[in-house]
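Q: You know discrete backbone vocabularies at least as well as I do. I have my own habits and do not want them to colour yours. No explanation is needed for now; the record alone will do.
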Amino acid sequence: MFQIIENQQLATTIMAIMLFPISHILQSVLEKSIKNQNFIEVELTDRSKKDTYQLIAFQLLFAMVIFAFSWFMGGIFFDLFAGGYLLSMLIGLMLLLQNIFYFKGLRNPQAATGKIRFSTEYGYKNLSNRLLAAGLLCIALFILFGNYYYLGACLFIFASSQGYLRKSKQVTDSGSS
């Protein structure tokens, strides 16, 4: 029924195209899961539809540039950039699923007592730390297996981790002024 795609570049590109809408669907599922539990208060970002569409357009443009460059250069560049981007998308989906299951578990009345309120700063730092751990895993996998997908993923993941750390500092600085 399913035929294995033998062209690794084509398979990687098709998979990335499939993962993009899946990640946005899971993001909306996560937001609903957060709203459907009563133990943890999380400040969700209040984006307008225009902001959301601009973010999606930027993400698509960024992915298209990465994949176009990777297809053009081929070889190790494809593995490093397109493969790394695909793997970083998969890791992002894993982190989304982890959060969905976490908040789904909190729907059970026996799961917890009391309430906790996470600050926006904590949310950014927590995601930064989780991405840092995922990046370290990718480095270890690169050392073990020598596949450049892992090295590329660690570069994208470390860049994202640093971006969230910088954003947490901006939230702290704006709150203390």
Remarks:
- The CA atoms of residues 113 and 148 lie 46 Å apart.
